[in-house]
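Weekly puzzle thread! Below is a chain. First person to post its structure in token form gets bragging rights.
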Amino acid sequence: MPDPEKTRAALLDPAKDYGHRLADVVRFLEATGWRQRIKGSHHIFTRPGVPVLLNLQSERNGKAKAYQIRQVRQTLERFKC
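Winning reply:
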């Protein structure tokens, strides 16, 4: 499993929006207190105290979609998660 701090640093870097494996992002979010539920191909994350849902899907190559990584970054920055 990748180091959560390295994953956080990569998520906060806008230049790396296209390179994240969905499995790594899911592990990071779970390790930092987000709760996951799965509905079809959607991985939906909630966290107490954060009024935002994070919805992640993988592309065909197993990578997370870039616009969803941007949403994760904005949420992490906005709510100091």
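Puzzle host: Confirmed. Bonus trivia for everyone else. The radius of gyration is 11 Å.
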